[in-house]
Design goal:
The structure is a homotetramer of 380-residue chains.
Chain A: E1 2-9, H1 13-28, E2 33-41, H2 45-55, E3 60-61, H3 64-69, E4 75-78, H4 85-94, E5 98-101, H5 109-122, E6 126-128, H6 136-146, E7 153-161, H7 182-185, H8 189-205, E8 208-216, E9 221-223, E10 230-232, E11 238-245, E12 250-256, E13 265-272, E14 275-280, E15 286-291, E16 301-305, H9 328-343, H10 351-370, E17 374-375
Parallel strand pairs in A: 1-2, 1-4, 2-3, 4-5, 5-6, 7-12
Antiparallel strand pairs in A: 7-13, 8-11, 8-17, 9-10, 11-12, 13-14, 14-15, 15-16
Helix pairs in contact in A: 1-9, 4-5, 5-10, 8-10
């Protein structure tokens, strides 16, 4: 077995999700590479140690530069707030490390371009954690589309609805709340949630030509955890946009953290000439599929319980009828990354793929300001 | 147009449902016969008049014998409590009237046999109001089964769950509450609700060989509306039974009025070698269908919105996607009855068909007492 | 009983739905007024006679001007293509008739203004058939919002999805297909489907300040039934728009006839500070309700089967658990119209209310052309 | 950290599920004990080694007696076919090992009694893997019932439906198919699937007084994998039974492997005086809850997405809205077992608890033969 020695930076929600994936992948998938939890890195030494102990990392670092400098690290996993992605990733690329970076790729397109340039110059394997591509039902959707089952696509609609920031008493900034702080996050729901919707959409339905957006910040001021002062809220609480894809289909996208009743309701629907598809993160193990070629007498939306061995990834898990959950999408992503290493066909989304999502996000935010349609910049 | 002059006895829930059906059928279906609301009959003259005015009956009677004796009545519709069915039906048959009788046919099998003998001797068209056969989704189920799509049947399961008699303060007997009075109703959920389940089952899956039942009366005593006294409750509040069909399939049936959350949840499911079917009265316009012959990758339960023009009865109503409701099953039953008159192929369930349901009900009640399997008597 | 003598113009889908409502309302509701089907009017005499016979109209006319001139007509019901609404309505108002007009009110705002002026000058009772307000679940939504249960509203989203015009072989124009002919319909999905969504939205959530739309015509040319020639298609096949309501909430609206799997899927969702609501025309008898004030341990979306006697309109129908269908919304609208006559408090949507919907539609179509945000004109 | 050194016997589906649980529990739960994968045991040395390598077991054994004899094993986990449970468990108890045994406890009640006697005599911690108790939604159901929210219970109904043995070509016996071989399994769906339903039922609703069952073997003969000959099938393919609980509630139970469309559809519903509960293994992260005390206007079944931090076990996983899957029930069971060790309050189901399930299973199979009601033996 070849060792894939991982150095992980960050110990939050994503740090846990990735560590779990590295630990599990070898139990369920067969590869030449074995993941080794080599080092965990966090500024707070006590937290780093605690995290390392819990997850079985063999060492700790408190300075990410030292982590990157180590010879015994093959892969750097970046699980820190968005404003730190670029600096770390570029340094890691220079150090010749493989890089797995949390989404969104960067604070903005220019920063993203530098990151892409860095990994491509260094020729290091790289990937961004847009994990929802690897939910089996979503991968199945991709497969059905690629087989041409839907025919010409007319419509795409996606939503990502949450309700956790409705209270005006919630502060911004600091651990767990950096997503409300524009300096750390870059944007609100656009980079956090719509970025997921856009990544899936580009993968399933191709490039987006132009967008027309509106954003809103319902709570204008919140106390800042780090400064202790009430400060202006710089992020978008909600964002909706119209879009036109290159293939001629029309789209609506919407995200908010002010939708009571929805904890993490990412949904998408695609309407094609022959068939339609619907998926929903709250029941992520199901795919809804309507095929107009079914006999009209018994035509209906099929609720596919994606747990059979011939459905994507499912032969690696339990038996038909038994569902997997959220965390498994990360295991699949690690598996595909390793398979990319071993086959020489890198799995997406690479930094370059994720830059395209960044470009759409930037066009969305630009349109929300300009109040007009904005073209999406071509990736280059 | 030939006139079909109707004399209706009773003015309760079913009196309304039937009157509505007679009034509507000609607007949506084309026949040589036209329903004429000739006379409404009820013991209370004021109520009879009020009912007749509201529904457009041209005359009233307060004695059903007089109604039956009238020359200008072609069809007698019996919508009174169960204990009155036999006497009226037998007299009406002797008078040469067509008869539509509310379900269940009779208080018990012997009474039912006399009713069948009467209508068959008199050769009068006859039918029992097991209306759920004519919900389009249920009719579609019948069609799919008859086409052989399910293959050999392994399992049948039906339930009819309500929750309206949980309060111990509810009295028994009198208008609206005669269903709790064993003298008027004959039995509780068995004759009221399971009779529906059994009628559908016999129609869809053939005869039942034997049954094994348990019943329960949760509230043992209730005040009687007519006597003003607290009296023993003679009906079954709940009944569940195992059954074996003649075709070798196994079944479970259950009904209760003590299931919180279910107002009128009649459901059935059939599992065959190749396909399964599920239906639910709370969403009566849908049929759930699973076809194992679908490609496994996209196999799932199909939720069929039964509102297309090629689905049973639906070409008579609105446009695809627009649902009809409970009352339409009665309109369809009138339509099929008239079609039976015009084609000479009587539509079911006839009195004879309904006698078979009665025989199953009697075997169920007998088994609940004997605590053993009981054979269902052969209809004759 | 006072007679409400109805003269109905048109014999299509809506002519049937309205006639059914007039016939049924007196069976289920108690009023001083009785609907009398006095005359049916259609250009084709044979069709008019056939329609009158089927529905029980006492006479026929082939020229709507004659119908309006008759003394024995109290109410004119306009069920003809959109391009005829204004002329007939203005003439009927001048003749002092009450007017029920199919939706949308008019071809455009200027025409609509004239119609409003005509009925207000003539002081005749008037109403537009935006029937979905009277689906009990929708009326319940209105009640919950008016009680303040949702609190401040953040988001509104509505869709109306169909799939019946995907085939390029479908012609435009003529009976049943006039909705594809811009000269008869004025617009495509905007006036036909989004108008329903907008009417409900204005009723539930107040006025719309501005909109930003895109439209598409997927099939650019279709054979015209009337000319026999292939002609340019002038209607919008699909339309999506962003909106801001006066109350500060954000909205997305979308409609298309190119969404496989959806026959008539009108849905709306409203997210408020405390609670959210979702409704769906394909299961119109249910309302989904989420109340954040429920204890968190057992908090969830409630699927309310709107069939209890204390829920809107339902005490007039059957018993709890038994659903009504599409057609009943029209019965309720007639009932409310009559109640308005008898109480002196006219029920909406009046012509004036419907003009506001027209103004939103016009802003939407204008925005689709201008490619920018457009303010909605103030009603006056 | 104290070490909990595990010796696992068997390497099949359950061997994987348990190993995964031991590996994960420490990442998500905090205990003084740390699970150590000390030894994996299987007759086939190559398979044992492969399994040990994949899951990280530090050693292998090919004879379970040797495993039990080892001093460095604290806990023996029995994941082999049912016919081997008793011998191994009794030997392990004598050796003073803690025991986790796969369900059902034993081939029959007498065997089970010996196992209970053995562990109680040896005073070793013991548990049976009825994992569904630890699906968070099921645990939540238990909590709601224990709080008295349902009030007096009227009805319990459970089903476990599969469809994997419909083909007559499927052989019996051998790896993966021992569940079809009565010598290895003891019974068919009764011990395999209904045992789960019964365990949950006894836990949620107390003891069962008597049962009345029917069973069926649809395919009478199948080729035996081990002998190569066509042999009589000794197991029950399907089983349904009526039951009465000690608390007066009525129940129906049903299981089959001949229900097309259901891979592993374990469902249960409980109807109480005030509230009802429904759960479904195909969407295991949801609990359906109906509370009649809700205001009638907005009363409905609540679909609770059990993923909030205050719902059972969920504070250990991700964030609200993100579902866990089947495998997590095993992690929870290990966590509760360890907590039982540390608090001195053993978690159930112990061998003694599981014996009660065995007694119900035996009464069911006895009733299916006797064709009468059979009392459930009292545990002792």
């Amino acid at each position: 077995m070849k060792k894939l020695r991982i150095g992980l930076i960050g110990y939050g929600f994503m740090g846990r999700a990735h560590s779990n994936a590295y630990r599990k992948v070898g139990n369920f998938f067969d590869f030449e590479h074995e993941c080794v939890l080599q080092a965990a890195c966090a500024r707070d030494a006590a937290k780093a140690k605690d995290f390392a102990r819990r997850w079985g990392y063999q060492s700790v670092e408190t300075d990410w530069r030292k982590l990157i400098a180590r010879d015994d690290i093959d892969l750097v996993d970046i699980c820190v707030p968005n404003n730190l992605h670029a600096e770390i990733a570029i340094a890691a690329a220079k150090a010749g490390k493989m890089i797995l970076c949390e989404k969104p790729l960067s604070m903005n397109t220019p920063e993203g371009r530098k990151m892409v340039a860095a990994v491509e110059r260094a020729k290091v394997p790289n990937m961004v954690w847009y994990n929802y591509r690897r939910v089996p039902a979503v991968t199945l959707a991709k497969q059905l589309i690629d087989e041409g089952r839907l025919g010409k696509i007319f419509h795409y609609r996606a939503k990502f609805l949450q309700d956790w920031t409705i209270s005006a008493d919630l502060p911004q900034g600091g651990a767990g709340l950096w997503r409300l702080d524009v300096k750390a996050a870059g944007s609100g729901v656009t980079g956090d949630l719509l970025a997921h919707c856009i990544d899936t959409a580009l993968w399933l339905n191709g490039g987006i030509e132009k967008v027309n957006a509106m954003t809103e910040t319902f709570i204008k001021q919140r106390k800042h955890t780090l400064t202790g002062k009430v400060e202006k809220v710089g992020i978008d609480d909600a964002c909706a946009f119209l879009a036109r894809f290159n293939n001629g289909s029309l789209a609506t996208f919407e995200s908010t953290r002010y939708a009571r009743g929805h904890k993490a309701l990412y949904t998408f629907e695609i309407n094609g000439e022959h068939a339609s598809i619907f998926w929903d993160l709250h029941d992520l193990h199901r795919l809804q599929y309507f095929d107009h070629r079914d006999q009209s007498l018994v035509r209906g939306w099929r609720s596919i319980h994606v747990s059979d061995g011939d459905q994507p990834y499912m032969n690696h898990w339990w038996v038909p009828g038994l569902q997997i959950g959220y965390e498994h999408s990360f295991v699949h992503q690690v598996a595909d990354f390793i398979q990319g290493l071993e086959t020489g066909k890198p799995a997406g989304p690479t930094f370059r793929d994720a830059l395209e999502t960044q470009q759409v996000c930037d066009a969305v935010l630009k349109s929300a300001k300009s109040q007009r349609w904005e073209k999406v910049a071509r990736a280059k």
